[in-house]
Every structure is written in structure tokens, then in C-alpha cells.
Amino acid sequence: MKLILIAGTLALFISLFGTPVLIKALGRRGYGQFIRDDGPQTHHVKRGTPTMGGIIIILASVVSYFAAHLITQSSVSVSALLILGLVLALGFVGFLDDYMKISKQNSGGISGKQKIFGQVVFASLFGYMGLQFPDKDDLTPISQNLSTVRDTSITLGVVLVIILVAFMVTATSNGVNLTDGLDGLATGASVMTFLAFILIGVWEFGQSCAVAISSNCYNVRDPLDLAVLAAAFAGSCTGFLWWNASPAKIFMGDTGSLALGGALAGLAASLQVELLLIPLGGLFVIVTLSVALQVIYFRLTGGKRLFKMAPLHHHFELLGWGEVTIVLRFWIIAGLSVAIGLGLFYTKWVAG
Question: What's the domain count of the chain?
Fold first, then answer.
């Protein structure tokens, strides 16, 4: 528990006090957000707000994770290192997209195909590497079995696991990216989900088959250290939220949203709760579905729209809801989704 507290606290302080420094640095270079003309008109006042704030989220998470282990003289885990590698890789893809938008002064960035390609490549590499590095109990960072709210006896094999992980990472990173359209919305929802992963990691460690041998114990590699990593991300997002809340002084950009989505999916895969990511990230799922439904309905009806605008939060903006009202209500949805996910996780253990 000491590691978790140190990592979370350090990440909070680094992000909280480091973000203003980043805001000034980005502002001096003119790295401001470009606002689409076809979006809600209220967003035009945000034009020029510094973006790429995901840099400080990633930096705070990485530094605090390693610093906590250095302070406590404990070793880092392969599972956490693989997730950090995924986060850095996806953060780089997002950084390229943000930089292209700034340099071109439009909302284009890199093409959608290029972004998806980068996500799939790095996610597939993460999935493959996660099946390597067995420990003394022959446990690898990612299991070859299908995981729901815990690992099952259904064996997928190497290829299917890599495909599943690639889909999870790509879908989640894009889901967070789509949700990141209002001040603090994606950041606050991410904090709640990371907190859930802390609880899951601690619980799996306490009920590990190496500690408490029973019929429903967990064979998960490095659950406690994954909880430490989740605490680092929760702390960094919380510190960033102080400056990202309405009216936002900085946006995380694709640099942050793609990285955070990768972290969430990586934790779900490594903690062997892959399908539990759906309720835990319920808000991200709802927002992503709204975009998919909008596109499908538009094509089936020859140009009609199901929502005034997608993603869903922009629909409510055009209905006249205030931005803060939308964010708070969507946070409530995110909190309820996390509660449902944790309830399913605990219920499965009780029924075990």
C-alpha cells in the first residue's frame, strides 16, 4: 500500500505543479488548439488554448512510478513496463497528430488510417510481448485465456489473444479520444476508471493463489504493481484535471487521450478483466456507440441524422445544455458504470 500511496501522491504533485509550466511553454510556442467551424459555436472561445497536455500526464505517471520503486527500494514488474511502453508508443502517435494539426492550423492532423495503423501495430506488439516473460509460476503478463470479470478456462491461443488485445487498445484509445471533447470530461472519467483498477489490483493480490490458495483465487502476474501503476495514472490525471476543468487552461490532445486509452486497455488485459473494461469504461463505450450509430443511421437513411451532432456530448450542447452541466452528468454516468463494473467483479468472486 505504501507504493500505491507514494506513486499516486507524487504523480498528483508533478502533474498539478508541472501543468502550469507546460501551459506557459506551449503558449510561448503557439501550440494552441484548432477548433472546427462545424462544431458548437460556444467552442470558438477555446481557440488557441494550449494542447498536447498529455505530455505532463505521461511524464508524471512514468516518473512517479519509478520514483516510488526507487524510494521503497522495490523492483519494477515486467507487466507495468510493457504497459508503460504501450502508453509511450500511443502517446507518440497522438503527439504526431497534435503537432500536424498545429503546424497545418486545421483539424486534419495525420490521416485516420495512419492513426489506426499506428495503434494496431503498437497494440499488437504489446499483446505479443505480454505473452512472453513467464515468471517462476509460469505466469505471463497477459494470459492466453479469455478474460471476462476474471480469467476463464477458454483458451484463445497466441494469435487470437493478440487480435483481441489490438482491438481492445485501439477501441479504448479512440473511445477516450472521442470523449475528450469537453473540458475535463475524459480526464475525470479516466480518474474513476483508474481508481477501479487500483481496487482490482489490490484485491487480486490479496486473493492471489500464491497467498490465499482457494477455489476462486487469482493467477495474475504482478497485480499489486499494476495497482501502483494505476495509482500513478489516477494521480497524474487528477492533477491535470485541476487545469483541464472548465474553463480549461490546457487540453490533453491526442497525446493524452490515446495514451490514457492504451493504459486502461493494458491494465484490463494484464489484470485479466478484459471484458470488464466495457462497464468500467461505460462512458467511453456510450460516446463511441453514439458516433457509430450516427454514421450507420446517416448511411441507411440517405443523409438523416440520429443526433444533432456526434459524439453524444455535442448533441446535448446543441440542445442548449451548458458545458459544465453535461460534464457533471456524464461524470455521474461514468461513476455508475465503474460501480457496476466493480459490483460484477466482486459478485463473481463471491460466487466463485
Answer: 1
